[in-house]
Specification:
The complex is a heterodimer of chains A (371) and B (335).
Chain A: H1 14-19, H2 21-33, E1 52-57, H3 67-74, E2 78-83, H4 90-99, E3 106-109, H5 111-119, H6 139-144, E4 149-161, H7 172-181, E5 186-189, H8 192-202, H9 212-225, E6 229-233, H10 239-243, E7 248-252, H11 253-262, E8 266-269, E9 275-284, H12 291-301, H13 304-314, H14 329-333, H15 341-346, E10 347-349, H16 354-370
Parallel strand pairs in A: 1-2, 1-3, 5-6, 5-7, 9-10
Antiparallel strand pairs in A: 3-9, 4-7, 4-8, 4-9
Chain B: H1 2-23, H2 43-83, E1 86-87, E2 94-95, H3 101-105, H4 109-142, H5 145-156, H6 163-174, H7 179-186, H8 201-225, H9 229-237, H10 242-270, H11 274-279, H12 287-296, H13 301-334
Antiparallel strand pairs in B: 1-2
Helix pairs in contact in B: 2-13, 4-8, 4-10, 6-8, 8-10, 9-10, 12-13
The chains are: A alpha/beta (371), B mainly alpha (335).
């Protein structure tokens, strides 16, 4: 794998966004009441007949910096508020929606949660005719996220410090070997789906496997790696790599892209065996009290200029090539963030594994952490 | 000091007389009361007065009874009810029932292993707190005036900072290339970066000791403060050396403080969540982290409640056992 360029812009990571949590949520409400300076090319629609407040359940700050203000400017009787309450895991996310029916109009989630919401009867099917800007999203992402509008995606791969190790890992196999050689110098994410998916790809299995035999081998592979890990990190994933206390990491592409801004010696690798990938998007909830306004907001979000503003702000990998012209240069050229059809062929998107599959994988992850 | 002890003795005496006057049987009907009115107070007239006094005393307890009930007993009861329920894995809604499957699942080795690890870490940290805390408390108790006040403030100042901030403070101290790493390198105890503290059980232990040390020092200090210095002088006069005085006089008299300190450190440390989450790096989880994962990551409230209840029951059993042991020892020594 080649090395990616360092970045020149400053992006916000999902974790940073979560850390801003309360402040962001509180700030959004008054901000949305203010008028924005710039307009939008969206035309007034049936949504203008509505008034009220749309509530999005999603990470704080995981939207364009002026997006909701501009939407309000376009539809003065509608405001959008973000709530991050309970977003500490997929189970809590779903429990939050199930326990507060009618509170949220739409939510940010990946296909596993969206499918589970659909099965539980909480999801409102997407009205594609009401979101014409969906055509701007690359078909591959529309196929992977049929529940709503895809907003961003990410891959779990390998990062390493080229100045600290002479080797150039290109595969999961390399990482498993080098982690033992440089024991205590590798970190990984504390997120079951992505790490288990990586271990499954290392063994040549599907990221979404629920086969007991394959899961057993996956668990053994992870337990074999654990004594050589420096940490299983829930926050500041790339900090040890930036500081040089870790030489390698299993990390997200967007996080490494941000880390490369701080240390040019960090290299991102999409492993030869393939990698697990997540996709995120907005879905409407059946209990939404402003459905027409929800479609309008989704359409507004996917307008190339608005979408570019969201990606430029969050630094996430983009799903809308039509927005490329308005994206910051570093995002377009960065190896881990740019739209790359060849890279997309190497990844497998995470799917809902069924109630038993989710519980079994969760139990295995708990055992891995407790071991 | 002698004067202060004597005042305190008088004070206890007054309290005890008051208590006796309230609790003791009423005087005979023919007895002249001490009041200046000189009139006879009948048994019938005195009863309501005592009842009012008793009610007043009980009324003072009301706020603490209500708050303990609302914020301790009710949540505990909810936890107990949840622990017999089950969860729908599709929408994570809890259904109440009376299944014991959550409790039978605890027997799985991973939970017992984590429980043992938590108990071992908690026990080790409590012992370390005692070993460090006792001399500190002794020094403070022996200090006088301004020096004592300064030492006490030094112990309490860290409590004015957020617990999480303090834990991140320790994170930086024991981190790679941190102050401890540099100090140990400078004095030649280690060569190169420290490998064994951050993200290891040892790091969690250091975090617990640092965070909970004041909870050990303060009760021991209070117990040591109450020791009459004349007792120490008497022990010396009778030929006991400093070590024997410490062993035979100071430690037994400070025992209530030591026991209180051990409980204050040991109980919360066993269920500790924040310190292992920050300093353990996800590699060395404690029981609190497992409970938290069940609630937050896996959405299995009933099982999370069951494992939380299991720890509560275990700690309660240990406390009751210790209490009965202490009562036996006390009755033996009083004989």
């Amino acid at each position: 794998m080649g090395e990616s360029d360092g970045l020149h812009g400053k992006a916000v990571t999902r974790r940073q966004a979560l850390a801003w949590g309360a402040a962001g949520a509180v700030a959004t409400a008054p901000l949305s009441g203010a008028l924005a300076a710039c307009g939008s090319s969206s035309k007034p629609s049936a949504a203008d007949q509505l008034s009220g407040t749309l509530i999005l359940l999603g990470y704080p700050g995981w939207y364009g910096p002026d997006e909701f203000t501009e939407f309000h400017h376009l539809h003065p009787r509608l405001t959008v508020r973000n709530s991050a309450s309970g977003l500490v895991g997929d189970a809590q996310h779903i429990a939050q929606i199930a326990g507060n029916r009618g509170k949220f109009d739409l939510t940010l989630c990946g296909p596993p949660v969206a499918r589970q919401l659909q099965l539980a009867g909480f999801l409102q099917p997407l009205d594609r005719s009401a979101v014409p800007n969906l055509k701007n999203v690359a078909p591959v992402f529309q196929r992977q996220f049929p529940y709503g509008i895809p907003t961003d995606y990410g891959k779990t791969g390998i990062a390493y410090r080229k100045d600290l190790i002479p080797e150039r890992p290109t595969s999961w196999h390399d990482l498993w070997q080098l982690a033992k050689k440089y024991s205590g110098k590798t970190t990984m994410l504390n997120y079951d789906i992505d790490i288990q998916g990586s271990a499954l790809r290392y063994l040549g299995y599907s990221v979404n496997s629920t086969n007991p035999d394959e899961l057993n081998k996956m668990q053994q592979a992870l337990l074999e790696l654990k004594p050589h890990l420096q940490a299983v990190l829930s926050t500041d994933y790339s900090k040890p790599l930036i500081e040089g206390t870790a030489y390698m990491a299993i990390d997200y592409d967007y996080d490494i892209a941000a880390a490369q801004q701080k240390n040019k010696n960090i290299v991102w690798v999409l492993p030869d065996e393939g990698a697990s990938a997540y996709i995120e998007g907005w879905v409407a909830l059946r209990s939404a009290s402003h459905l027409a306004a929800v479609w309008e907001l989704m359409n507004f979000h996917l307008e190339p200029r608005n979408y570019a503003s969201f990606i430029n702000y969050t630094g996430a990998a983009y799903v809308e090539p039509a927005a490329k012209a308005d994206l910051k240069h570093y995002i377009v050229v960065n190896q881990s963030l740019r739209y790359d059809a060849a890279a997309l062929r190497k990844v497998e998107f995470e799917k809902y594994l069924g109630a038993k599959g989710v519980a079994e994988r969760g139990k295995l992850w708990e055992e891995f952490l407790a071991a | 000091m002698g004067q202060r002890a004597s005042q305190s003795g008088e004070s206890y005496g007054r309290s005890s007389s008051l208590l006796e006057s309230i609790e003791s049987d009423p005087p005979p009907l023919s007895r002249e009361p001490d009041d200046s009115s000189g009139g006879r107070i009948s048994r019938i007239a005195r009863f309501p007065r005592r009842a009012v006094l008793r009610l007043r005393g009980q009324g003072l307890l009301l706020p603490s009874v209500v708050s303990a009930g609302l914020f301790f007993l009710v949540p505990l009861a909810l936890l107990l009810v949840y622990s017999f329920g089950s969860v729908n894995l599709l929408d994570y809604q809890v259904y109440f029932g009376w299944t014991i499957s959550n409790y039978t699942s605890i027997i799985r080795s991973i939970y017992l292993g984590v429980m043992l690890r938590s108990l071992a870490l908690s026990l080790g940290a409590t012992l370390a707190c005692l070993l460090i805390g006792f001399p500190v408390a002794y020094t403070i108790a022996r200090a006088r005036g301004r020096r004592q006040a300064v030492l006490l403030v030094m112990i309490m100042v860290p409590f004015w900072t957020s617990f999480i901030v303090r834990t991140y403070g320790i994170y930086n101290v024991i981190s790679y290339n941190g102050p401890l790493d540099r100090l140990l390198n400078a004095i030649g105890l280690v060569h190169g970066q420290l490998q064994s503290l951050l993200f290891q059980p040892a790091g969690i232990g250091i975090g617990i000791v640092y965070s909970y040390l004041p909870l050990m020092v303060l009760p021991i200090y209070v117990a040591l403060e109450r020791i009459e210095p004349n007792l120490l002088l008497a022990a010396s006069d009778l030929g006991a050396g400093p070590r024997r005085v410490l062993r035979r006089v100071v430690v037994p008299l400070a025992a209530p403080g030591i026991v209180a300190g051990c409980f204050l450190v040991g109980i919360p440390a066993t269920g500790e969540y924040t310190i292992p989450a920050i300093l353990g790096g996800g590699k060395a989880v404690m029981y609190g982290n497992v409970v938290s994962d069940q609630f937050l990551s896996l959405g299995n409230y009933p099982f999370g409640s069951a494992i939380a209840m299991a720890l509560t029951v275990l700690i309660l059993a240990v406390l009751l056992w210790l209490r009965s042991r202490a009562a036996k020892v006390e009755s033996r020594t009083s004989r």
